[in-house]
Design goal:
Largest sheet: 2 strands, parallel
Order of helices and strands: EHEHHHHHHHHHHHHHEEHH
Mean pLDDT: 76
Radius of gyration: 28 Å
Strand order of the largest sheet: 1-2
Helix content: 55-70%
Shape: elongated
Strand content: under 5%
Number of helices: 16
Number of strands: 4
Number of domains: 2
Structural class: mainly alpha
Amino acid sequence: MRNSRVGVTGLLLSAVLVCGNRPLAQAAPAPQTVSSTEVFAPPSAMDLKAAVFAWIQQSNLVETPIVDAIAPSWQFEEKPSPEQLFDVLMRTFYLADNDTRHLIDSCRNWTYSASLLQIELPSKDRDRNEPLLTNNVRYFLARHLTLLTAYNDALTIFDTINPKYVVDPAGCLFHRAVCEQHLLMKSQGLKTLHLLLNQTQDVPVRYRKLAELMETDLQGVEEKTLDEVARQMKDVQRRLSLQQTDEGVQQVEEKIIATLDELIKKMEDQQKQNSSSSSGANSGGAPMNPAGDSYLGGVKGPGETDKKEIGHKDHWGDLPPKAREAAKNMLDQQFPAHYRQAVEEYLKKLADRPAPAP
């Protein structure tokens, strides 16, 4: 079966030529209907220009100064890349559409703020009638939020985008994958990366190389491991730096504590099993004198383990003393120093942070 080449041009121009005055997106497939044979392909400059001027005609802007204002942007000395075409398209929408102009102006300040979340995206009516505008404007905002590390907010917008209508499909899929990788969304991220690496044309080398690294990284993610905990703690710190303290953040924190509790219990059970096995092996032999010194983690002492100052006030997170000591021993014995430091720093911040208001 031959691959079906899916691009902006074919979908939009066919709707214009065949449907006449009917909505441009009337025959457009839903974003969820991406098959294994479809290939996302950016349009040529000539075809995109034709689609844009069809949109101008549909929007009754032909007899306005807009046409003269945008015309120079569509003159290219060399073949433009999909990213360059996307920039030209957004400049066109900026000049021709008030809602797009307001959205872009709101993104000029490169800081995350609550006002960014209040930006109104194109309405559903426009989404049905103007898919070229709505999907590319949404990608503009989603990419902006991704670059601000607001991955959760960006992903909410990516979920509303149909990459079939995005002029730079490789950029759209890449930035979506970045969000999913940072949020440890393994299955979703691998699916997006597969679409990018195997079903998208004209993928820039830098996107492809980074996507391959992200794919390898996601494939190695295992649930309920200290590696996952360290990543989750980093994600919580990112969210807190953006002043995000909503229910989603608290759920991640609870998951971190639950995973640590489970790892501690596994360690304790293993220690008990090892102790039981050792006692059974020695039960038939001569009595053994207890060692004068105990040994743990390369440090000898008179029958006691090392006590290290871990820098917390009076509670290590919300763990009880026994669990806290067990966790400390587990970190000292079984995991690299950077994991131990990450856990300690995170739990210290968790202990020092005031409780959320009821």
